[in-house]
Amino acid sequence: MEPIFYGFLTGVAMSLMLGTVFFALIQNSIEYGVRSGMFIATGVILSDIILISLSFFHVELLPAGGSVEMWVRLFGGTFLIVYAVSSLRKKRKIEYRQFERSGVFFLLATGFMLNILNPGNFIGWLAVSTQLTQVAGYSLPQCLLFFTGALSAIFCTEMLIAFSASLLKEILTDVFLRRLDIAVGVLFLGFAIFMLWPVPRMLFSRT
Fold first, then answer.
1. Which of 41, 60, 144, 157 has a CA 20 to 30 Å removed from the CA of 207?
2. Sequence ranges of the domains in the chain
3. Is residue 174 within 8 Å of residue 56, measured between CB atoms?
């Protein structure tokens, strides 16, 4: 059970990093309730499974050089800008909206895209995979137990964040919600700039 335990601790640590998913969870859980957070967290887990598979099993299939990173940064930064502008343009009134099934795909896609288009997540899983195989000497079954523990922790932690945020909506005001949207929009623009900043250098280095 040691691999699961250490995997769980790793997953909790990764979930508490204040990235884009963290703020999207809070924003949507306040507006639509804890169920919206569940679908965002599910999208995150699906993308993490892909990132873990790439980092652990098929990293050698990725082309050499920075072309993959450049395109991930380009698409990820664009996605963050669209999300940020949408958040900044919201007109807020206190509404206790019922969660609608029509929003499931959007929320799944939001969690999936925010997570998979962050280059740092792939680098993080690559570092974890290297640590497990090259340093800790874990076998494949042990690695699978570790990643199971990590993914379980990520899902549980993000659900806890979503649940905590959903409890706040009963005491919030229009002004607070508007300020939250502005704060999220500005933060996401900052993340987008950080993600896109190296892209021009990568483009010029290829010419």
1. 60
2. 2-206
3. no
